[in-house]
Design a protein that fits this description.
Elements: E1 7-16, E2 19-29, E3 34-38, H1 45-53, E4 60-65, E5 68-69, E6 80-83, H2 95-101, H3 109-122, H4 138-150, E7 156-160, H5 168-185, E8 189-193, H6 196-202, E9 205-210, E10 213-218, H7 220-225, H8 230-235, E11 240-243, H9 245-248, E12 256-259, E13 265-267, E14 278-287, E15 291-298, E16 310-315, H10 316-322, E17 329-333
Parallel strand pairs: 3-8, 3-9, 6-7, 7-8
Antiparallel strand pairs: 1-2, 1-4, 4-5, 9-10, 11-12, 13-17, 14-15, 14-17, 15-16
The structure holds adenosine-5'-triphosphate.
GO molecular function: ABC-type quaternary ammonium compound transporting activity; ATP binding; ATP hydrolysis activity
Domain ABC transporter: 7-236
Organism: Paenibacillus mucilaginosus 3016
């Protein structure tokens, strides 16, 4: 018999007035797993996190933590650590006092200073103990908020867009730091994000939500390579859609085939491909560093994507050889095995 899930959400629904924020959500999370709740604005991610935290009660369904039902318990009795987008530190307390705050009454007074010192060490700010939030950068404040959440050694860490208020460079650095901290402490973590790159780089498993429901769950590779729906293909990564009938010869014009821009091949003169290459004119070119992203227009309209233009990623060295430029012509091939 397999062991019960560490965190279990079963059949949770929640409405605000006539608006349904969650329409029957079930989810299991393993011990030590890092799960990202990903989806567009308003899909219900934060509501689900707040129900896990006990800040909101579900209309139906429940939440279990280590096989104990916690649905009716107040937040303070669930053994949960939380970090939100806004740093939410107490401005009149130093970094050390902020971290110590959650420990009061939970660990013997004599141990608090040592635990705080360890936590500051863990987040790489051993010398910031006496500084006030206003004397810390955004990234440092968010590290302190993280330390405050983990110092109590919670059973479950809940993060709501904890990095989204930070600038791109700091955000990337903190992604790595947060992930190593989580692994080091073996913290079971559920993080809300609407940033697909964040979910792809950080999660063990992505839970993709849309319109109050979970629409796909899987590792980042599974969700990226085998999206369960056009919504999933489009939300995570860039994608071109084509009416399926064109490639499969079937009459069903409704069905769509998709292909990622990096999977489209540029065909050189005289090169043989399984299907005839599509001759295109380059309409826009964007330099992305390691590659160029081009929007190309098939000369024969029959090969247009549902958006008209086809998006193709071309590795920079190849683009240089091709002398890729607006209005030039090139031939592309959509490998059958890459169609999703
Ligand atoms: P975002 O990424 O924008 O934060 P989200 O996916 O986290 O979005 P939720 O905050 O869970 O979405 O909200 C889901 C829906 O429920 C939204 O339409 C929102 O307006 C609504 N909603 C959430 N909380 C309340 C509330 N307290 N009262 C009324 N409506 C609410």
């Amino acid at each position: 018999m397999s062991s019960p899930p560490y965190v279990s959400v079963r059949g949770v629904t929640k409405s605000f007035g006539s608006h349904q924020a969650l329409g029957g959500v079930s989810l299991d999370v393993d011990r030590g797993e890092f799960v990202c709740l990903l989806g567009p604005s308003g899909c219900g991610k934060t509501t689900l996190l707040r129900i896990l935290a006990g800040l909101e009660a579900p209309d139906r369904g429940g939440v279990w933590l280590q096989d104990r039902e916690v649905t009716g318990l107040p937040p303070g009795e669930r053994g949960i650590g939380m970090v939100f987008q806004s740093y939410a530190l107490f401005p009149n307390l130093s970094a050390a006092e902020n971290i110590a705050y959650g420990l009061k009454g939970r660990v013997p007074k004599k141990d608090i200073a040592e635990r705080v010192r360890e936590a500051l060490e863990l987040i790489g700010l051993p010398s910031a103990a006496s500084r006030y939030p206003s004397e810390l950068s955004g990234g440092q404040q968010q590290r302190v908020a993280l330390a405050r959440a983990v110092v109590t050694r919670p059973q479950l860490l809940l993060l709501d867009e904890p990095l989204s208020a930070l600038d791109a460079k700091v955000r990337q650095k903190l992604r790595l730091e947060l992930r190593s901290l989580q692994e080091e402490l073996g913290l079971t973590t559920i993080m809300v994000t609407h940033d697909q790159e964040e979910a792809l780089t950080m999660a063990d498993r992505i839970i993709l939500m849309n319109e109050a429901r979970i629409v796909q769950a899987g590792t980042p590779q599974e969700v990226y390579e085998r999206p369960a729906s056009p919504f999933a293909a489009d939300f995570i990564g860039a994608v071109n859609f084509f009416p399926a009938g064109r490639f499969r010869g079937g009459p069903d014009r409704e069905e769509l085939l998709a292909i990622r821009p990096e999977h489209i091949r540029i065909v050189g003169p005289g090169e043989r491909t399984e299907t005839a290459p599509i001759r295109c004119r380059v309409r826009h070119v964007e330099f992305r560093g390691p590659f160029y992203r081009a929007a190309v227009q098939p000369l024969d309209d029959a090969y247009a994507s549902t958006e008209g233009l086809i998006t193709v990623d071309i590795p920079a060295p190849q683009a240089d050889l091709l002398r890729l430029a607006k209005d030039s012509l090139l031939s592309v091939h959509l490998p059958q095995e890459r169609l999703i």
